């Protein structure tokens, strides 16, 4: 098997494992867990995994004082993105939520245009209109039913907070910090938000069934550690942009599990909406000048590609 084939397989695995979020989260909700408790344990279990990975690669945990504040802010941005996404699962089907979330690269393009005066091309405008059309189709579902407005708002808040994070993590202050170390501290500082929200453990919902603990561990292993590792390797084999485009499998995987396991509905109208959003994001990643801002690393919660030019040292 040549390197390119390996890269595409690894990229597909990375995207598919991230799409497993609903697979492990919804059973926990069914047993009465709230998003804060689920995410507290997910972050808590993922941190030592990434810490072991960091030490295994011969890295240290040291930070410069000027880097700490930036990582605290970034950690909270990712935590807010995770929280609003997981809260949206209580208001709408997880597969649809994961698809709407996939518009965050388009939000990155808008942020770069507004805040950093980057030119918006006709292609970007077209992709925005395409994505909005897709969201419109998702919002107006089958048989005249509409999606819950609170759920849509939560997903858009998740996409926006992650888009701000993507822009922020590419600022010069963190350019010399290895990607794995950034990920470790983003999780660590993000955990502090959930620690506060569960009243330092007073309102933490602890599961009492062994298989539910398996779900919590699986959330830390599959959508986090395995997805991250496969992404890193995929970028080394095929580069950042193809790996980012393969991210289109993330909402597809989420929809697949939602329909086959949780009985979520999938009408032709919803299929069209999902397709339009995936096409819009694929076009903007493949041909837009925002790609450099989407390659620090592939979605953590969710994740985007590592910057290929950072060489393998930052991986």
TrEMBL record:
<feature type="transmembrane region" description="Helical">
    <location>
        <begin position="95"/>
        <end position="115"/>
    </location>
</feature>
<keyword id="KW-0472">Membrane</keyword>
<feature type="transmembrane region" description="Helical">
    <location>
        <begin position="210"/>
        <end position="231"/>
    </location>
</feature>
<feature type="transmembrane region" description="Helical">
    <location>
        <begin position="145"/>
        <end position="167"/>
    </location>
</feature>
<protein>
    <recommendedName>
        <fullName>EamA domain-containing protein</fullName>
    </recommendedName>
</protein>
<dbReference type="Pfam" id="PF00892">
    <property type="entry name" value="EamA"/>
</dbReference>
<keyword id="KW-1003">Cell membrane</keyword>
<dbReference type="InterPro" id="IPR000620">
    <property type="entry name" value="EamA_dom"/>
</dbReference>
<feature type="domain" description="EamA">
    <location>
        <begin position="150"/>
        <end position="285"/>
    </location>
</feature>
<feature type="transmembrane region" description="Helical">
    <location>
        <begin position="243"/>
        <end position="262"/>
    </location>
</feature>
<feature type="transmembrane region" description="Helical">
    <location>
        <begin position="7"/>
        <end position="26"/>
    </location>
</feature>
<keyword id="KW-0812">Transmembrane</keyword>
<feature type="domain" description="EamA">
    <location>
        <begin position="6"/>
        <end position="139"/>
    </location>
</feature>
<feature type="transmembrane region" description="Helical">
    <location>
        <begin position="122"/>
        <end position="139"/>
    </location>
</feature>
<feature type="transmembrane region" description="Helical">
    <location>
        <begin position="179"/>
        <end position="198"/>
    </location>
</feature>
<dbReference type="GO" id="GO:0005886">
    <property type="term" value="C:plasma membrane"/>
</dbReference>
<dbReference type="InterPro" id="IPR037185">
    <property type="entry name" value="EmrE-like"/>
</dbReference>
<dbReference type="InterPro" id="IPR050638">
    <property type="entry name" value="AA-Vitamin_Transporters"/>
</dbReference>
<feature type="transmembrane region" description="Helical">
    <location>
        <begin position="68"/>
        <end position="89"/>
    </location>
</feature>
<feature type="transmembrane region" description="Helical">
    <location>
        <begin position="274"/>
        <end position="295"/>
    </location>
</feature>
<keyword id="KW-1133">Transmembrane helix</keyword>
<feature type="transmembrane region" description="Helical">
    <location>
        <begin position="38"/>
        <end position="56"/>
    </location>
</feature>
